[in-house]
Amino acid sequence: MILKPPLPGIKLLQTGALLRRTPNIHPNWANIESDFGRLEAGYKGELSLLYELKMLPQNGHITLFNIRMTNNGFHFFQVDVLLFTETYALIIEVKNISGTVYFDDMHDQMIRYKKDGTEECFPDPINQVLIQEYHFRDWLKQKKLQQLPVESLVVFTNPQTIIKFSDKYNPALKLKVIRKRILPLKIDEFSKKYQDAILSAKELKKVSSQLQKYHTEHFPDILDIYKIKASEILTGVQCPNCLGLPMKRSQGYWLCQRCGCFDAKAHETAFNDFGLLISSLISNGQARNFLQLQSPSITKRLLKKMNYKSEGRGNSLKYAIRIRG
Ligand SMILES: [Zn+2]
After folding, report:
1. If you measure from the C-alpha of residue 12 to the centroid of ligand 1, how many angstroms do you get, rounded to a whole number?
2. Does 59 score more than 80 pLDDT?
3. Residue ranges of the NERD domain (predicted)?
4. Cα–Cα dist 250/106, whole Å
5. Are 221 and 229 within 8 A, CB to CB?
C-alpha cells in the first residue's frame, strides 16, 4: 500500500516558480535552472518507481515517499522511499542520473561523467543510506517503537546509466546498488530473509501514523539561497499557455496580450507563486500589487474564492496561502 505517494517537493516548485518569474539575465539563473533540472529528474525517478512498487502484494507492504524527520529538533534526515512490513524496513535512495557514475570509496563521493565531457560530484549515496539507516533506527528508539531490522538500497532508475566502482570498494556495500527493474526481486529476497513478525497489525498501524505525524516538509528561504531580492520577482498573472506576463483582467477572465489566451483561474498560480517565493501570508494590498490589479474588491473576491484561512482583522487581515503541487 502506498501510504504517501511521491509529490513534487517544495524546492522543486520554488525553483520552477523562480524560473518563470526571474529575468533570465539574473546572474544566478543558470544555477536555478540546473537545480530545477536535478530536482525534476529526482521526482520523475521516484514516480517511475511506482510501477515496480505496485507489483508488490498490496497487503502488508507500506510505502511512504519523501519522509523528513528529526531526532533532536535541529538536524533532519530525509528518505526518498521508506517501505516496511511487520518483519523489516527498507530505505531506498532513488537516483535518476544519466551518463556514467563512479563510486569512489576513498573520498565519500560519486562522480558523474556526462557525454559532453563534464563532471559532477555527488555525496556517495551508499554512505547516505547507511546514515539514514542509523537515524531511522534511532528514531524508532526515541519514539519507543519496536526495533525493526533496517535494510537499504540505492536504486538507479535510468536503464542507460553506466555504474562503476573504485577497485577497493567494499563488495558487500556494492550489493546495495541496484537497477529499478530488480527491485521486486530484491524485496522478495528480503521478505524471505526476514520471516519473524516483529510488529503486530496494531503496531504496524502505529508506526505508519507516527511517520506521517512527525514528517516535516522542508520550506527553504529560496530567495536567500539564490540571493534574489523580492523586488526582483516579476509580478503579474502569468499566461498558462505562453508564460507571458502580465495577463489583463477583463470581464471576469484573464487575457494574455501576447498569445490571446483567456483563462478564468490563472490568478491561482500567481497566489501559489507568491506563497512559494515571498511569504505564506498575503494581504489584500500585496495581492493587488502581485496580480497587478487596481480594485481591492475584485482582489478580495479572488482571495475569498481560494478558501484560504485568514488571520487578523481590518487592515491587518492576511490570508494563509495553501501551497498546491
Ligand atoms: Zn499567452
Report:
1. 23
2. no
3. 41-163
4. 63
5. no
